[in-house]
Design goal:
elongated, alpha+beta, 2 domains, Chitinase A, domain 3, 339 residues, 7 helices, Cyclophilin
Length: 339
């Protein structure tokens, strides 16, 4: 090759590489390089959208955050314990069986214009609202948006998706290296004090939001259900039809029809629509506590509308995309038979 042509091509390649590096520097960010026995994965961490979750991930990765497992980098030699083709690969449990964690939990960071809409999304695994610890997963397919209301997204794979797709159960994280580009990324502090401070702020915000939501629902009940009585447990009820049979007791087997509604009037479940009454053994824990309290107060043949407070329903848990955390739930109940 002509040496002038070679030099020209070399200069073009050099300019191209410099341009890519400058683009990365201009964009900046915090990145995690996950080294596995199958290859390397590079993740962009969304430290501005999910600061608490990213702080947790970096702190554990670098052995900064106090936890009940180790004072060394937390994820070293941790396996991918859960792999579901077309869904997720999951890791972060030092026990390797899916039940372990760092000995603490922290609140969700949801609703921040982040979505599980493409493969490669990195998100926290949990056992319910605000139970994040160390386990996380990477999505293997697009359009898993139903996870958006349940799991905190904190990053996305930008290199090595082919490695992610080749991971099998039992494959291992060897180490994780964190890199920062730009002044904003460099200024993002990760230590025990900052983590505790932000966690406390989030918990206070969630408590305030929960209290406001409960107050709003109680105001709605006082306006829209003025003919309801309230028992000592905080359950509102109205007897629509008196029963004339036996009363239930613990251990009784009841045949019950019901319809469940939000206070907005939206129906979320109905045995009547299915033409399929349910069998309830009182005291077995088969139904929510508010149901058991009311069923023990009813007579065979009675029809009653009840409104159960969150503490006797699902509490701080959300159920699917329909029932929000801290929701009062209304039920029309027919106690058809006591066996």
């Amino acid at each position: 090759m002509d040496k002038y042509l070679f030099n020209f091509l070399f200069i073009l390649m050099l300019i191209s590489c410099i341009g890519k590096k400058e683009d990365l520097v201009e964009k900046g960010g915090i990145f995690a390089s996950i080294y596995t026995n199958k290859g390397n994965i590079k993740i962009e961490l969304y430290y501005e959208d999910a600061p608490l979750t990213v702080m947790n991930f970096i702190g554990l990765s670098e052995g900064i955050l106090k936890n009940s497992v180790t004072d060394k980098p937390y994820f070293e030699n941790v396996v991918f314990h859960r792999v579901i083709d077309g869904f997720v690969v999951q890791t972060g449990d030092p026990t390797g069986i899916g039940t372990g964690g760092p000995g603490y939990s922290f609140p969700d960071e949801l609703g921040r214009n982040l979505s599980h809409n493409v493969q490669g999304i990195v998100s926290m695994a949990n056992s319910g609202p605000d139970t994040n610890g160390s386990q996380f997963f990477i999505t293997l397919s697009d359009n898993l948006t139903y996870l958006d209301s349940k799991h905190s997204i904190f990053g996305k794979v930008i290199e090595g998706m082919e490695t992610v797709l080749n991971i099998r159960q039992g494959d291992k994280i060897e180490r994780i290296a964190i890199s920062r580009i730009g002044s904003s990324a460099e200024a993002f502090k990760v230590n025990n004090e900052e983590f505790a401070k932000l966690k406390t702020i989030y918990e206070a915000q969630k408590t305030d939001e929960a209290e406001k939501y409960i107050s709003y629902q109680l105001e709605m009940i006082s306006k829209d259900y003025i003919d309801f009585q309230k028992d000592e447990n905080g359950i509102f009820y109205r007897i629509n039809k008196q029963g004339n049979g036996r009363s239930a007791k613990r251990g009784s087997v009841l045949i019950v029809d019901y319809e469940g509604f939000l206070l907005s009037g939206a129906k979320f479940d109905s045995s009547i629509d299915r033409s399929e009454p349910i069998e309830v053994i009182v005291g077995s824990g088969q139904v929510i506590r508010g149901w058991e309290i009311m069923l023990l107060d009813m007579l065979e043949g009675e029809e009653r509308t009840i409104i159960i407070p969150p503490s006797l329903a699902y509490g701080e848990r959300s159920i699917g995309d329909t029932i929000k955390a801290n929701s009062f739930l209304k039920f029309d109940i027919i106690l058809r038979k006591i066996n």
